[in-house]
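Problem 12. The chain below contains 360 residues. Write out its predicted structure in token notation.
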Amino acid sequence: MAERLYVASKKGLLIYQRDAKRWRHASTAFIGSPVSLSLASPDNKTVFAALNLGHFGTKLHRSTDGGVSWTELATPKFPKEDGGDKDAKAPTVNGIWSMEWAGKPGALWIGTAPAALFYSGDNGETWTHNDALWSLPSRSKWMGGGTVDTALHSICVDPRNSNRVGVAVSCRGVTLTEDGGKSWRVAGHGLRAEFMPPDQQYDPDIQDAHMIVQCPADPKVWWIQHHNGIFRSGDDLKSWDEIHTAPVSKFGFPVAVHPKNADTAWFAPAQKDEFRYPVDGKVVVQRTRDGGKSFDVLREGLPQENAFDLVYRHALVVDDTGERLAMGSTTGSVWTSDNGGETWALLSAHLPPVNALRFA
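Solution.
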């Protein structure tokens, strides 16, 4: 099946399909409803869609025919807390912030707000709450980053060993399991939170990592777009180094790493903190090809005046070739590039606000 681009938007899930020359709109699902995320199998037959319906709660749907028809699934639920209070209520899942395949057929992880991790081994029919992560003693220091709830927004399943999973939380930073979720350890040493008092800035339990990615071909290399900077780990999460060379802004939400070249990564910078729009009203992409020593500012085909496009953490993606990228914004624009971001083509400027993109 041809490559697809899934656009999760505030008014539905739009599916585009690539032919020999360009992207064409193939279908729309959940029209009028806010779709937070999607996840598709490599053959595009199995597709998950997460919805956040506000008053009506968080919903999860699955298609097994490439998006033609959909079945609503039970959403992950927290177990009732065992505190001896018969009237105690379990926390409520207030949003699905991340979805990734777990390295085995029919297995996937979901990250939620409040920050928790759930596992399914049967294509979403049932879910198991990861109590080990939820019960970490450091959780008392975690806090929401731009939201009331903490949010587990990034899941990286190590291509070398699917039992090795790194997750990122706003605000907690990076946490790693090497035994499939039975135990967890902090993996954010070196991250810096400039919004904290000086004696707390390097506390790994309060870091606001906006997005983390791991290079598939060189999995010891990880990148973070942090609230106050760009960081890189080249030693498999033993430590992080802050990158100080970003030319436009060190603030932003997404990061995408080249699947074959760990030194190449893309970022969508913005003006912080309360402003959150493109610097000088110009939409650009910052790309490094030397591990952060230097950056190119890519702007051809992107709006260069009076732009208010913010790119969310899951709305800048690269495909398996490392050459094709897509980027969506809060103003309903989606751009694609076929040459590593050197030039961009506008797919549409008239979509609903874009929450997330996904190639498959």
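Discussion. The CA atoms of residues 101 and 108 lie 4 Å apart. Students who got a different answer should revisit the alignment rule from Section 12.3.
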